[in-house]
Write a sequence for this structure.
């Protein structure tokens, strides 16, 4: 989770709270990169699909990535937008579903993830919130069901699980909770109040809670 990847943006519009990418396949005004001197002055490398549509555009200046790298689908829809400054990730990276809806956005600063990264369900509702500080998870990670209800909340400190993690059923009721210290499960309870056995806590995969006996 520390390195989420790729992403995209172009013009975004709001429609009932759902973000869409502009489907228009438009090249920037940067000239084509042909020589090393071009990459110093400012240019873009481009690749195309066999149907003639733009596949990828990568901007350069001072021989470094500078600007927004863009990746397109065969139908011309923008799929990823990845901002660079002085050769490093810098700005909000975005990725879109094939239907144009926003799938993922990641804030970068000076080459690191810094801020709240978010993913979305295909219906446009928020799926995950992942706060980062200097490229590490720091804060409360939240998951959401596609109906908008909270699925889980998981506090982190400097990329370590730290505090009480909670999982919820789709109707909003508590499924179970586990307390972590430095990524080690210390104690846990099922939603019905039943204590989770310490042996099960020591062996379980934190992303697979079905073996904890709370179902």
């Amino acid at each position: 989770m520390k390195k989420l990847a790729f992403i995209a943006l172009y013009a975004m519009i709001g429609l009932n709270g759902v973000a869409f990418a502009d489907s228009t396949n438009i090249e920037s005004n940067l000239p084509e990169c042909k020589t090393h001197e071009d990459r110093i002055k400012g240019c873009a490398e481009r690749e195309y699909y066999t149907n003639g549509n733009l596949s990828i555009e990568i901007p350069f200046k001072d021989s470094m990535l500078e600007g927004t790298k863009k990746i397109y689908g065969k139908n011309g829809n923008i799929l990823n937008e990845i901002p660079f400054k002085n050769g490093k990730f810098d700005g909000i990276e975005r990725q879109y579903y094939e239907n144009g809806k926003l799938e993922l956005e990641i804030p970068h600063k000076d080459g690191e993830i810094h801020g709240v990264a978010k993913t979305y369900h295909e219906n446009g509702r928020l799926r995950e919130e992942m706060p980062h500080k200097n490229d590490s998870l720091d804060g409360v990670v939240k998951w959401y069901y596609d109906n908008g209800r909270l699925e889980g909340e998981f506090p982190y400190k400097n990329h370590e699980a730290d505090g009480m993690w909670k999982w919820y059923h789709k109707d909003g009721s508590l499924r179970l909770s586990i307390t972590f210290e430095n990524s080690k499960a210390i104690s846990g309870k099922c939603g019905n109040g039943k204590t989770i056995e310490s042996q099960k806590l020591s062996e379980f995969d934190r992303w697979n809670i079905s073996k904890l006996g709370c179902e």
About this structure: Helices lie at 36-41, 198-203. The longest strand covers residues 54-61. The two ends are 27 Å apart (CA to CA). The chain has two helices and 20 strands.
